[in-house]
Write a structure and sequence with these properties.
Two copies of one chain form a homodimer.
Chain A: H1 23-36, H2 49-56, H3 60-72, E1 76-79, E2 83-86, E3 107-108, H4 121-134, H5 149-163, E4 172-175, H6 177-191, E5 196-201, H7 205-213, E6 217-224, E7 227-228, E8 236-241, H8 255-268, E9 271-275, E10 299-304, E11 316-319, H9 322-336, H10 341-352, H11 355-381, E12 387-388, E13 395-399, H12 407-416, E14 419-420, E15 422-423, E16 437-441, H13 447-464
Parallel strand pairs in A: 3-14, 5-6, 5-8, 8-9, 9-10
Antiparallel strand pairs in A: 1-2, 4-11, 6-7, 10-11, 12-13, 13-16, 15-16
Helix pairs in contact in A: 1-3, 2-3, 4-10, 5-10, 6-7, 6-9, 11-13
Chain lengths: 468, 468
């Protein structure tokens, strides 16, 4: 970004003027200190001497002389036509020195994001513009902890239509991503006396960290090819499930087990938290509807826009049963008062105009193809290891055989070759004795880079698992 | 917003098809159930029969017949040129029924917001557009819990220049408003074994609720005309101060007391949390610099864009000492992973292009004038009650005399007349025996409505405090 100010008289400046000296000396000392300590960075434009003099109640001559003195000392410099600015002396802190340069990755199979090059920038910007042009002034004021009414209404319709969720706008709470939704739920459960929460094993380690931060203890629910195995210990206040597409193994919770979990929740009073992970992406048949539809009084439904559009948007939602809604709203209020308004209005517009449906329809066949190509690549390179899970989502997992290279061997080699991979181990509650493997995000690379990424993965797997 | 879909073939639909019946009956039952339970709302457009048939693997004739049957039953209706949609039967849930209609307010002195009609919509939209057009694809990916590097860099410069804050980009953490910053700090203190936090008495009740939600106990620091009175009990992990312009009384913490608080913090190891409330708005002289500049290793500086631009943006920041930074980043990560990216990039642009400075320069003289007019109004109506606090900020407080009408009398009368006022009582830690009064947000009304609002306030005060 450009450092120059288009209008130098609009620059605000705070300076500590030492007392008990001449005015010119005071100005010089204040500016010198501000530059030395880095408060005024190199390239920072100063107000004109006239504005500076007005601001601080000095004569203009005093300021002109002080600027001249500091210019002579090398603290300031004058540029023709653009006024006076802080000079770029070595040792003086300069801007941008802490910017991180992204490491070059030759093949990016990171987990948990869509192909970001498919983000519909111009359509999203148009939605933002419409949100701004139609929002009343009051929409810029204090936020509702539940989120904007218009987005809650649109989402209640959308989730009913697309995911079979039974939602009323008043049961919807907008959060900054599903992660915050989970945090707010954990806070609400904890405030209501809950002590323990059950997560699938394996599950996302970030989710366990969130529950721990909210003061909850964690128990594990084992997962097999049919999804989580229904069981529930007495003191569990909530069970977090990913029924549509298990994160990270990719299996789908069977209809029988769905009913079992609902029965357990009804009996025990525990709440099921349905993380509808990748619910929108099913490739071999119609997606299975949300578990929430079976028992809306016992299930909290949670989702987000992260995999449909972009994780950077931080927009998610909960559909909350009546018994829990007040606690969740209060937890959201004391978390951050409420989520930012304009992007909520933009999302409401984006859904209402059909743009979200179109976006998903556009990328779904691409992801479907990518998954098939990934499966073929793995099979060709290592016929003995297989990809787990359903034809769904944006990732696929592979488990390594007991005898052979370990997960850390594979990750080390991948790292040497700048291939970004995620190991399976960290997802287990306790990785000791559990199978290692990889969780492959096949949506991450841009379309043009996918074939090459697969080729590098193929070579890696061939090198790691040589055919015997 | 418009309900119609611009492209009906882009509509996603989830339906539960019952098994064990004829196909047409299954489609009809599934649609009927979805409409009855409200999952498909009145006005919802359905896919064309061709698309529906493709989706669910049915013949088109089956779908046409099912649509016809449900139309005959009144569940669906056909509109020429716009396909089939869910009919607006009474008893079927319709959209928008839960939208809240804002109550009409004749004079709005609500506390804690700027004049929202001054929000620079087109400039902000331009900043959003630039953020989108220059952001690399990776900027749409997973967020950094500290916030975007570019905004942290710009803010470190800005806060140094305008508020005398000593900040390095790596010491800045972007939050969703100052409220979330306070919550994240409380979580970090709590995780580090902190048990107790001190707030000024009076202070914002929302801030006490946030600390309580993080599991901290609260103690009170009395406030007089010189600001908070320096004192510190042993077990206090942090002291929250509003040195620039006390919320709600409006006084400014004196230089002597600033040094005293810093000394107490140094001695005890407690952290000062500086809520730089209204730090940008000083009317009678140069603003006093941030307390943080005196002792950056013992003070967390916190601020937000809420009063400078709009509370709906939910953008705030902390400048955190090295001893606390890792704990704060971890607390932010488990709160919501990080703040939404695009609005951060827009704010960085908005500051760098000088637009924020210009905005504040533009509104500052207006708010200054409004404050003087408010003082004159109160004095004219009730010479015995006086407005507390410095010529600063966006609010002024008045305390009622011991004998005379109570705060609840005044609020009740104001409510009858649709005058939005905030009582002082709720700000005290324990309101019993504390003076009642009003906290008057003089920035809230639009410019054209301010004179009338003052006139209504004048009449109210004259009626409540009749001259004797």
């Amino acid at each position: 970004m450009d450092r120059s100010w288009t209008n130098s008289s609009g620059v605000d400046l705070y300076l500590e003027m030492p007392s008990g000296r001449g005015r010119r000396a005071a100005v010089e000392t204040a500016l010198r200190n501000a530059i030395r300590t880095g408060r005024l960075a190199a390239g920072q434009r100063l107000p004109s001497s006239r504005v500076f003099a007005d601001e601080f109640g000095l004569s203009r001559g005093t300021v002109v002389e002080a600027y001249a003195q500091l210019t002579a000392e090398g603290y300031l410099r004058t540029r023709a036509g653009s006024g006076t600015e802080v000079a770029g002396t070595s040792g003086i802190r300069t801007r941008g020195s802490t910017e991180h340069v992204a490491e070059a990755v030759s093949a990016d199979f990171r987990f948990g994001q869509p192909d970001l090059s498919e983000f519909p920038r111009s359509l999203w910007l148009r939605a933002l513009r419409r949100a701004f042009s139609t929002a009343p002034t009051a929409a810029l004021g204090p936020v509702d902890p539940r989120g904007c009414a218009v987005l809650r209404t649109v989402l209640a319709d959308y989730l009913g239509r697309v995911r079979g969720v039974l939602a009323d706008p008043n049961s919807v709470v907008i959060c900054s991503g599903f992660s915050q939704g989970l945090r707010v739920l954990c806070d609400a459960l904890s405030a209501a006396g809950g002590r323990c929460i059950a997560f699938e094993d394996p599950c996302l380690p970030e989710h366990r960290a969130i529950a721990r931060a909210a003061g909850l203890e964690i128990t594990a629910i084992p997962v097999d090819d049919d999804g989580a195995i229904p069981e529930l210990s007495r003191d569990v206040a909530a069970i977090v499930l990913t029924p549509a597409h298990h994160a990270p193994l990719g299996c789908t919770l069977t209809a029988h087990r769905r009913r079992e979990f609902v029965r357990l929740a009804r009996e025990s009073g525990a709440i099921v938290i349905e993380d509808d992970y990748n619910g929108e992406f099913r490739y071999d048949r119609q997606p299975i509807g949300a578990l929430q539809g079976l028992a809306p009084d016992h299930v909290v439904y949670g989702g987000s826009i992260s995999k449909m559009l972009a994780p950077a948007l931080r927009l998610g939602w909960l559909v909350v049963p009546p018994t829990l809604i007040d606690g969740v709203i209060e937890a959201k209020r004391t978390a951050d008062r409420g989520t930012s308004t304009i992007e909520q209005l933009a999302l409401a517009d984006f859904i209402e105009t059909g743009n979200l449906d179109r976006q998903i329809r556009r990328v779904r066949p691409r992801y479907r193809r990518r998954r098939l190509e990934l499966l073929a690549t793995v099979t060709a390179a290592a016929p003995d290891i297989s990809v787990t899970g359903a034809a769904a989502g944006l990732h696929a997992a592979i488990k390594f055989p007991d005898h052979g290279p370990t997960e850390s061997d594979v990750l080390a080699l991948a790292s040497d070759r700048s291939i970004a991979l995620t190991g399976l181990n960290q997802f287990w509650h306790n990785g000791n004795g559990k199978p290692g493997g990889l969780v492959l995000g096949f949506a991450t690379p841009a379309q043009h880079a996918y074939a090459n990424a697969l080729s590098l993965l193929h070579t890696l797997l061939c090198d790691v698992f040589p055919s015997t």
